[in-house]
């Protein structure tokens, strides 16, 4: 073998064994459909590493869930534990935002404009919020103990990029499904392309929406 080839081979071997751990990551696309094959939006797919609890870095600024046209927007929000949320009211009428959910009970009495203070979500779980004045107003905050999550769009796809290689518990939550769908999953380092996981949800809980709006596609 010529010296130049040997040098190239040595360089390859060197780099293959000294790649920083951070690059050993893969990506996953979770495709969420109902039993008829129609895409399901607003599903939250999360990956919890089985080896050790991941480090969480909540955003410095609060996440926003606004009230507009007497609806919450967005309808589903996924955040990590330790995130603060603001509830700005963009309507001309007052709203009274509250939650009775175990991970976070809170109450923001009647207000307009910016919410008086942000709310800290410091425990994992699903927090359902409502408005004391408008019965149909409802939204969900999924508080996660992992930074690896995504919400499905109207195409039913939730894309999780840069997930460190390893074994995970995949959980797919949806407001209309009583129990999240879970399975174990191996994430391989990239180079093998995006791993595609298909999940079938059976939305079986009805959701009330504003009678006059007809928005959201939930029946
Ligand atoms: Cu209201």
Provide a compact summary of the structure.
The chain has about 220 residues and is mainly beta. Helix content is about 5%, strand content about 40%.
Task: Compile the SSE list and pairings.
Blueprint: H1 3-17, E1 25-33, E2 44-49, E3 63-64, E4 66-68, E5 71-73, E6 76-80, E7 83-86, E8 95-99, E9 106-111, E10 119-121, E11 125-131, E12 138-144, E13 149-151, E14 157-164, E15 166-173, E16 181-187, E17 195-200
Parallel strand pairs: 1-17, 3-7, 6-12
Antiparallel strand pairs: 1-14, 2-13, 2-15, 4-5, 7-10, 8-9, 8-11, 11-12, 15-16
Salient structural properties:
5-stranded mixed β-sheet; disordered C terminus; globular; Immunoglobulin-like; 219 residues; mainly beta
Description:
The chain has 219 residues and is mainly beta. The protein has one helix at 3-17; strands spanning 25-33, 44-49, 63-64, 66-68, 71-73, 76-80, 83-86, 95-99, 106-111, 119-121, 125-131, 138-144, 149-151, 157-164, 166-173, 181-187, 195-200. It folds into 2 domains: 23-54 and 148-208, Immunoglobulins (Immunoglobulin-like), CATH 2.60.40; 55-145, Sandwich (Immunoglobulin-like). It has 1 helix and 17 strands. Strand 8 (95-99) and strand 9 (106-111) form a beta hairpin. Mean pLDDT is 87; it is low at 4-22 and 210-219. The chain binds copper (II) ion. The site of copper (II) ion (CU) has 6 residues, from loops.
């Amino acid at each position: 073998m010529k010296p130049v080839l040997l040098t190239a081979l040595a360089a390859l071997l060197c780099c293959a064994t000294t790649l920083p751990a951070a690059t050993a990551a893969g990506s996953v696309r979770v495709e969420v459909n109902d039993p008829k094959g129609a895409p399901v939006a607003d599903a939250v797919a999360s990956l919890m590493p089985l080896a050790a609890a991941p480090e969480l870095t909540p955003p410095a600024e609060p996440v926003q869930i606004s009230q507009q046209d007497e609806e919450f927007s967005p309808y589903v929000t996924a955040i990590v534990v330790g995130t603060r949320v603001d509830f700005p009211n963009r309507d001309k009428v007052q709203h009274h935002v509250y939650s009775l959910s175990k991970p976070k009970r809170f109450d923001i009495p009647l207000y307009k404009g910016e919410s008086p203070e942000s709310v800290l979500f410091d425990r994992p779980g699903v927090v359902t919020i409502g408005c004391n004045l408008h019965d149909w107003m409802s939204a969900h905050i999924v508080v996660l103990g992992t930074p690896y999550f995504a919400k499905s769009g109207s195409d039913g796809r939730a894309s999780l990029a840069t997930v460190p290689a390893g074994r995970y518990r995949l959980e797919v939550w949806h407001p209309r499904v009583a129990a999240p769908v879970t399975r174990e999953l191996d994430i391989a380092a990239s180079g093998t392309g995006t791993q595609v996981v298909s999940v079938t949800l059976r939305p079986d809980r009805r959701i009330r929406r504003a009678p006059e709006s007809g928005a959201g596609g939930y029946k």
